[in-house]
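DUF5004 domain-containing protein: structure tokens wanted.
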Amino acid sequence: MQFRLLTYLLMTAWLLVIQSCKQQEILVPEQVKDISGEWRITKAVRNGVDITTLTDFTQFRIRFTADLQYTIENPLPFIVSKNGSYSLDDPKYPFRITFSESGGNAPVSNTFTYPVVNGKRNMNISFSPGCAANTYEYTLERINP
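Answer:
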């Protein structure tokens, strides 16, 4: 009888030890990526050459609203030239943005990255505005969310 009791206690202790060693996965919900706010160009590269200081990029602004609209102020070569609406391919892990200009032009879709650099959210976008021989790479920084 004592042997059974001792065996039972040892098995129970062993099961408790095994259970305590299991790794529990902690799920942290991914935040929806919010691009709303006003953005400015901080770096511009054309065909592999940094042109940030060769052109005045300081006046260009693109504003994204929470209701999926965008406006462009002081246009430069960009994916679109008119105001309109936008959509992201995935709200948590966006890799593609689609612009739909007001006036019925076909939507334009493009990839982008959304890194945090020096504590600030950036948007990196590469595109060819019509002529495939010219490729632009812009780094945009949010001015205000």
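The two ends are 72 Å apart (CA to CA). The longest strand covers residues 37-46.

Cheers.
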